[in-house]
Amino acid sequence: MGRRGRTVAAVLLAATATLGVVGAPGAMAAAPQDGGTSTGQQARAWLPQPTGPYSVGTTALHLTDEGRDDPWKPGRHRELMISLWYPTARPATGADRARYMEPAAAEHFGSGEGVGLVNYGAEPGRTDWAAVRGHARADAPALPGGKRPVVLYSPGLGDPRTWGTALVEDLASRGYVVVTVDHTYEASEVAFPNGDLATSVLPGMIGQPGLDIGAVLRKSLQTRVDDTRFVLDQLTGLRRDPHLPAGLAASLDLDRIGMVGHSAGGFTAVQTMHDDPRIKAGINLDGQLHFPGPDGQTGVFLPSVAQDGLDRPFLLMGTQSPDSGDYHHQPGWDALWQHSTGWHADVTLTGSRHGSYTDAQSLLPQLARQGAVTPERLRDDIGDIRPDRAVLATRAYVASFFDRWLRGHNDHLLDGPAARFPEMVYER
Questions:
Q1: Of 185, 178, 342, 160, nearest in space to 262 by CA
Q2: Do the beta carbons of residue 424 and residue 385 sit within 8 Å?
Q3: Where is the signal peptide (predicted)?
Q4: E strand or H helix at 154, and its extent?
Q5: What are the Cα distances from residue 375, in Å, to 26, 47, 364, 366, 385?
């Protein structure tokens, strides 16, 4: 399977390739880790401004599931890091802006062992990931105004929860509370408040004799679903948490919950929606819904969400990556489409690639101009669509969907082809 396809199996194989398996697809030589460019200056990049009327606050929480052993680390409880993003009356300025990544996480992400290189081709040591800033104010009080819809965000395989910050901040600026989830020991790295840095176990698994890639991916998906359902359980308790920023707990409307995710996170969104009725609507951003056949068998394995379908609204957003596209070209998407009774739609972003729905679309062009990403890798990861148009279209379609199904406001963008977004091909 090719690196540029969006099968989670291909991503797993490629993601572990440059972490120690010679000759696997997508591998590239690691640059000398001198901590910077040849001139000693690291590349820097910034996220685009949110478009909604509200300033954005954010806070991070450490959660421990004392009723579940960690599937990747038996004998210890499952621990997660999440962040909440929400409207606030206090805009971020200068040093008040929240970090994009914690320093230890940023260092690992940008090293020869992190997914900055593996998934996106950023040369090790050439980018100052710790200097990236979004537009949210850390631990700001929530904006008064009653309960707000909640949207969960799950990143792609290996990606940290921060890799969708531009989209997440935009939703929060439009009045949503967004919860981003790190899937510990699958994500490239997760930084905990006590200073621990949990790095991915996947590189160490690849190359093991008799490894069943399909089984690893099914385990990953189940772990992600269990993580998400645990986070949903914890959101109820947050209403009584005195340590949250003022007003945040009271703003959570847990009767209006949606979920969006990219790649494996998109798979996670619709599978969790299938398994848990608390999620009322979901968006899959370019995440295939099939695995390699069980135990090395030929063909593909369809998860229960594809076999059963969904009875609630969902949106599929595809790219023009190899092995991607609309539901007609993918067995999992096609099965989900045929078996679902809830409202559903499918759009494809012309000129895009697998990374186009992530922060790669905003950050990588800036890094490429500074020599930290090659032009070839840039095209492979985000295609040739104008970055500003890709970001604008992604934000508009995601917001239109959740406005329609969580707020009851229909702007009719998803009724069919839209003249203001010719880049989006509406599939029937």
A1: 160
A2: no
A3: 1-29
A4: strand 148-154
A5: 15, 20, 10, 11, 14
Position 111: which residue type?
S
- pLDDT tens, residue by residue, 21-31: 222 223 222 33
CA-based nearest residue to 154, from 87, 216, 49, 226:
226
In sequence order, the 6+-apart residues with CB closer than 8 A to the CB of 426 are 345, 346, 347, 416, 417, 418
Assess whether pLDDT exceeds 60 at residue 32: no
In whole numbers, what is the pLDDT of the chain averaged over residues?
89
How many of the other CB atoms lie within 10 Å of CB of 238? 19
Nearest to 85 by CA among 128, 47, 130: 47
Which amino acid, residue 79? E
pLDDT band at 82 (very low <50, low <70, confident <90, very high): very high
Greatest CA separation found in the chain?
A: 58
User: Which of 169, 167, 144, 177 has its CA nearest to residue 55?
Assistant: 169
Domains and CATH numbers, the chain: 8-19+43-427 (3.40.50.1820)
Phi, psi dihedrals of residue 190, rounded to the nearest 5°: -135, 120
pTM above 0.85, yes or no: yes
Q: Report whether 384 contacts 8 (CB < 8 A).
A: no
Specify the pairing of strand 55-69 against strand 77-88.
Answer: antiparallel
Q: Which CA distances in Å does 163 have to 154, 155, 207, 292, 359?
A: 10, 7, 27, 26, 5
Beta pairing partners, 61: 82
Considering only residues 9 and 73, tell me which one the structure prediction assigns the higher pLDDT.
73
Q: Residues 287, 260: contact at Cβ < 8 Å?
A: no
